[in-house]
Amino acid sequence: MLQPVARLAELVRALVQRHYLDLSAARVWPLCVLVVYGIVAGFIYNPGMDHPWDKLQHLVFFGLLTLSIHAFFCCRLRISAGIAVGLGLTAELVQALVPHREFSLGDIAANMLGVTLVVAAIMLLRLEVHAALSGSPSSGEQDDETADAAQAQPAASSSGRSRPS
């Protein structure tokens, strides 16, 4: 019994190494959360029926979808967001063609808001990490000496005097 399992594990390991797939927890975790969330939400809420949390469900699902695509496939953020928005638009267009389902601009807006919030959070996190790694304070954290020097510099250049070197 262990022989086929060991062969399968070796095959997966070889494929991962050959195609440079990173199956670390940081890459797989958002996808797992998305799947669990989808299953739980599917059991709690009856699909196709309007409920008070419908737009919030769309927002959370498409936010998790964007994060999952970005983390798992290691692609650019704009590509992840574009894929998620495309999937949301396609899902709503398909619902227009399916009986007992309906096309909703509100759902599209909630989908795009979920994507936008995740993209904004990732960009903000990247800015903070970049500022921390570069050692430069963010714009609101300048010390008094740096702020005074920045204010005095334009005054000195406008008076026509050259600065001593």
From TrEMBL:
Keywords for this protein: Membrane, Transmembrane, Transmembrane helix
TM region(s), chain numbering: 28-47, 59-88, 108-127
Presence of the UniProt keyword Acetylation in the record: no
Domain of life: Bacteria
Chain positions covered by the region annotation Disordered: 134-165
Keyword Transmembrane appears in the UniProt entry: yes
Regions of compositional bias (Low complexity) in chain numbering: 149-165
This protein's name: VanZ like family protein
Species assigned in the record: Stappia indica
